[in-house]
Design brief:
Strand content: 15-25%
Number of domains: 1
Order of helices and strands: EEHEHEE
CATH architecture: Roll
Number of helices: 2
Keywords: 2Fe-2S, Iron, Iron-sulfur, Metal-binding
Oligomer: single chain
Radius of gyration: 12 Å
Cofactor: [2Fe-2S] cluster
Strand order of the largest sheet: 2-1-5-3-4
Organism: Solimonas fluminis
Largest sheet: 5 strands, mixed
Number of strands: 5
GO molecular function: 2 iron, 2 sulfur cluster binding; electron transfer activity; metal ion binding
Helix content: 10-25%
CATH superfamily: Beta-grasp domain
Pfam families: Fer2 (PF00111)
CATH topology: Ubiquitin-like (UB roll)
CATH class: Alpha Beta
Distance between the termini: 31 Å
Shape: globular
């Protein structure tokens, strides 16, 4: 298990436990984290799981695929640390990962 820290746009922090091998998006949905919609179920086709990765964790994530980059281009409020959490698979190295949710996915 790994702890994933979600910080909502209003500052509310939610710490969730997630299984290694799962995705961060699935952990958010399983724990009813507000701000993560996941309309496509993790198929990297909707961008409703947009998050901001804390700077300390960016280098530990795999690089973005071209599909993820294209979807993020059409998202609201994209920043340099934006990622789709359906594309982040949980590993032991990501225990403590900190993500912030945007004010809106739409």
């Amino acid at each position: 298990m790994a702890k994933i820290v979600f910080i909502e746009h209003n500052g509310t922090q939610r710490d969730v436990e997630a299984g290694v091998g799962s995705t961060v998006m699935q952990a958010a949905l399983d724990n009813l984290v507000p701000g993560i919609v996941g309309d496509c179920g993790g198929a990297c086709s909707c961008a409703t799981c947009h998050t901001y990765v804390d700077a300390a964790w960016l280098a530990k994530l795999p690089p973005m695929s071209e599909e993820e980059k294209m979807l993020l281009e059409g998202s609201l409020s994209v920043e340099e640390n934006s990622r789709l959490c359906c594309q982040i698979r949980i590993t032991g190295e990501l225990d403590g990962l900190v993500l912030r949710t945007p004010a809106s996915q739409f």
